[in-house]
Amino acid sequence: MSLFARTGRLSLSRQQLLRAAAPAPVTGGSGDQRLEIIRRVLFEQPTRETPNLEGEALQQHETIERAWKLHQNQERERRNRELEKKFRKMSAAMNELEKTSDRLFKAAIVKSRHITFPREMKIPTETPSPQGWNHDYTPPVEVVPAKNS
Amino acid sequence: MIARTLPRMLGKGAHLSRSFATSIQARAPLVSSNYRIASGIVLSRTPQITRDSTPFEKAYFDYSEKLERQSAIPLPADFYFKKGSLAERRWKEDEAARMKAMADPKLSLSEAVKETQVKQEDADVTTQMNKFETGSRLSEADKKNDIKSLNRALQRTLYLIVKKPRDQHAWQFPQGAVEEGEYLHDAAERELEEECGKNMDVWFVGRQPVGHYAYKFPEDHVAKYPGATGAKVFFMKAHVFAGQCNPDNKEVVDFAWVTKDELPNYVSPEYFNAVKDMLSDL
């Protein structure tokens, strides 16, 4: 029952909307211009036309796209090489640590139970903060429990 | 020795491993098969801004932006702007600049709009008052070449190197001997605090070293301090988020924030070869 009432109300408001969106009847030429604009923007979106490339222009476009793909590939490979170097360095250090001291090695492979990630970490932006780097940071004062002596 | 242990016992000794470490009386440096074990800190400041695009990248972005515009649905300007308003006039000026840029392959759309916007801002007083301030991509520290400022080389990763009071191998990453009963990551945190002060917001990435470097001590050094003939340094990675290095002027007399490319100007070639692979190119 309530469902029907609801749908009924909804369809009523939709009717009102449609009536508003419909072209305003010409009543003495003073119809609200805004409604006409809203209707046009909402319902009469011109279709997006895809650029029609042919012949030489198409060839040019494809060459540009291919060059861009190549560039991206090179960039990705450069980054992978860098990461691989870092990884190799890390595993070499771990091997060396295993040979050097068993105690230190075991401590290094234990993961902390409280893995946290700093929220201060941020990704590079287009422009830096106008305040710049905070050089005057001081650590928050630790709360020292009051001594009873 | 006592002076060095005491503040730590009072300080944040919440770590289990730390409290174990402090309970041990003899604080001899850890030696393994004639090598002294040391913990080094690779403290980095990550890039703050995006890198400059190469000319090729710029040209491609411009090309695809223009292509996108050609096929885009035109903006219903009469819906968004009131007739005869300032906003409409400005938009029309921008649009005219964009139309001009579309015909000119050397001028990009965003540059064209930027030019007209600068003109509009100069002409109008209210926009000057409400102007949104952004920092400059080239900082003051870059212009003055201030290697101690963390505002320099914003596009690159900076690494902290410190200078020890000696003639050879003076510059290096902060490092210090691991003591008996101490772990690498504890030693790294302690050494960084001892050498560079507390006023840095630092996060250590993990407990595993990111690289290592072994070297022999000079012979006169071995004669003076027998027990170890060389040292093995294990580097721990850390990030800095705020604050500045504050050297203690005893162990460390100077410091600098340098990029990977600038590092060979300070350290010896052997040291650079040993550490270069664990540093970021950018």
Report on this model:
The complex is a heterodimer of chains A (149) and B (282). Helix content of chain A is 57%, strand content 0%. With 149 residues, chain A is an all-alpha fold. Among the domains of chain A are: 3-42, no CATH class; 58-109. In chain A, helix 3 packs across helix 4. The longest helix of chain A is centred in the middle third of the chain and has 46 residues, at 55-100. Chain B has helices spanning 2-10, 16-23, 55-71, 77-80, 86-103, 109-123, 125-129, 140-144, 184-196, 219-224, 269-275, and strands at 31-32, 35-45, 158-163, 171-172, 175-177, 200-204, 211-216, 230-243, 254-258. Chain B folds into 2 domains: 2-49 and 139-278, Nucleoside Triphosphate Pyrophosphohydrolase (Alpha-Beta Complex), CATH 3.90.79.10; 55-129, no CATH class. In chain B, strands 1, 2, 3, 4, 5, 6, 7, 8 and 9 form a 9-stranded mixed sheet that branches. The model of chain B is unreliable at 1-26 (pLDDT under 50). In chain B, a hairpin with a 7-residue loop joins strand 3 and strand 4 (171-172). The chains are: A mainly alpha (149), B alpha+beta (282). Chain A: InterPro entries: Ribosomal_mL40, Ribosomal_mL40_fung. Chain A: One of its GO terms (cellular component) is ribosome.
